Amino acid sequence: MKTAASILRPEPGTISPTAPASMAYNFLFLLSCIAVVSSSSHAYVYPPLVEGLSFTFYKSTCPDLESIVRSYLKQLFQSDISVASGLLRLHFHDCFVQGCDGSILLDGSFGGPSEKDAPPNLTLRPAAFKAIDELQTLITQACGPVVSCADIAALAARDSVRSTGGPKYKVPLGRRDGLSYATEEDVLSFLPSPTSNVTALIDVFTELDLTIKDLVTLSGAHTIGIAHCSSFEDRLFPTQDSTLDPIFAEKLYLTCPALNSTNTTVIDIRTPNTFDNKYFVDLLHREGLFTSDQGLYDDSRTKPFVIVFALCQRMFFENFVYSMTKMGQLSVLTGSQGDIRRNCSALNSNLSWYAVDGDGHDGKVF
Ligand code: HEM
Ligand SMILES: *[C@@H]1O[C@H](CO)[C@@H](O)[C@H](O)[C@H]1NC(C)=O
Ligand SMILES: *[C@@H]1O[C@H](CO)[C@@H](O)[C@H](O)[C@H]1NC(C)=O
Ligand SMILES: *[C@@H]1O[C@H](CO)[C@@H](O)[C@H](O)[C@H]1NC(C)=O
Ligand SMILES: *[C@@H]1O[C@H](CO)[C@@H](O)[C@H](O)[C@H]1NC(C)=O
Ligand SMILES: *[C@@H]1O[C@H](CO)[C@@H](O)[C@H](O)[C@H]1NC(C)=O
Ligand SMILES: *[C@@H]1O[C@H](CO)[C@@H](O)[C@H](O)[C@H]1NC(C)=O
């Protein structure tokens, strides 16, 4: 028998599909939410760290790493807060496609900076890639080439969450960069589509050893950022999705008047630039943007988590830190695996080839 507390704790666990969402039950959640807040212990619970990663990995080799990242992004976000959501999504894509190894950053990877023909569902913001490259330059100036691009992406995602009002958490470091490109096939099979039903979403997450709770929790990242019409127009045309609030749908039709509009809109209509639990409140009001969002409220396996997070932001934050840390350790390379890329957009082997001024026939010089 699962108790309310076992649902709330940011630890592995499933909950019974029949978990009651009654008023009394919700009232208990609310009480426990308030109780926890007033005791205000801000120590988050982390999953076990993968061998080779640690919170103090660069303590001696790059002691200023985290402050360099923080101050660069602080300035960047002052001029354009929207880069924050781009950076958060970048880390997600990096981790889901062949592990958090920076491969999504490579020029030439599907979804990477050079992928001009990527479908809109893969459009990662160019500004986010640029921020990673600029950060790497600053970090290399300060510490030499010791910090991986995958770690920079993880730190940038963390600071994006924090800068927009989300939880302040620690990131295990020590990831190494991958030596191969992310293929189109990997991208398509591991990045869930916004048109997915909950079963398909659970399948993708399960494949990566992530739980149903991780799915709901991590979807909460949609509390910031924007989306293109193409990501949700299946809910407007040819017919209006019945799970969509009609007034919300009317607004969406203004932004996306017909198929193939290139317009964008915010994902969380309540507080689009603030990392909070309003995304879950949106779902309760049938104002989730994607099928993959709204479905979480309509499926008995995921609905209880949606309700809890909508009622209690603290529970969302605690679980978010836990699930993000899990996601951030997916298939990481450590120790002597992979390498430290000297340019986040290119493999070192390609750089050497450049430096040696080859004639384009052979990528390998060593
Ligand atoms: C559960 C499955 C998920 C699906 C189906 C999904 C799908 C999408 C889609 C279609 C977009 C809009 C792309 C566009 O039209 O430009 C988007 C945006 C976004 N996603 Fe997800 N996503 C999922 C999970 C996640 C996770 C786990 C995170 C991070 C932890 C995340 C973070 C974001 C952010 C921050 C944006 C806004 C990007 C921006 O403003 O440029 N998503 N997602
Ligand atoms: C992205 O959209 C294309 C069509 O534009 C579709 O073929 C593909 O399956 C989608 N992939 C994902 C991961 O959503
Ligand atoms: C969910 O999506 C999968 C894959 O797209 C499909 O095979 C399945 O029939 C769908 N399930 C439901 C209940 O719609
Ligand atoms: C884009 O959205 C605006 C309003 O948000 C709308 O007036 C315009 O018609 C849309 N354009 C296209 C091409 O969909
Ligand atoms: C939208 O684009 C698709 C393929 O890109 C095309 O088949 C379809 O006719 C277009 N629809 C409209 C309404 O323009
Ligand atoms: C990094 O690599 C990319 C892709 O090869 C290239 O366009 C860019 O100029 C390089 N950046 C630096 C600073 O060398
Ligand atoms: C990088 O080098 C590999 C061989 O090591 C080569 O096949 C590939 O085309 C190069 N990619 C780019 C973008 O230069």
Return the domain count: 1
Order of helices and strands: HHHHHHHHHEHEHHHHH
At the fold tier of CATH, the topology name is: Peroxidase, domain 1
Largest sheet: 2 strands, antiparallel
CATH architecture: Orthogonal Bundle
Q: Estimate the mean pLDDT confidence.
A: 87
Give the overall shape. globular
Q: Strand share of the residues?
A: under 5%
Class based on secondary structure composition and strand pairing: mainly alpha
**Tally of individual helices:** 15
Highest-level CATH class: Mainly Alpha
State the separation between the terminal residues, measured CA to CA: 60 Å
- Number of separate strands: 2
Q: Which strand order spans the largest sheet, edge to edge or round the barrel?
A: 1-2
Low-confidence stretches: 13-19, 354-366
Radius of gyration: 21 Å
Helical percentage? 40-55%
Ions, cofactors, ligands: which are bound? protoporphyrin IX containing FE, 2-acetamido-2-deoxy-beta-D-glucopyranose
SSE layout and pairings?
Elements: H1 4-8, H2 23-39, H3 65-79, H4 82-96, H5 126-143, H6 149-163, H7 184-190, H8 198-207, H9 212-219, E1 226-228, H10 246-255, E2 264-266, H11 278-284, H12 291-298, H13 303-311, H14 313-327, H15 348-355
Antiparallel strand pairs: 1-2
Helix pairs in contact: 3-5, 3-6, 4-5, 4-6, 9-14, 11-13, 13-14
This protein binds protoporphyrin IX containing FE and 2-acetamido-2-deoxy-beta-D-glucopyranose (6 copies).
Protoporphyrin IX containing FE (HEM) binds near residues 92, 125, 193, 219 and 290.
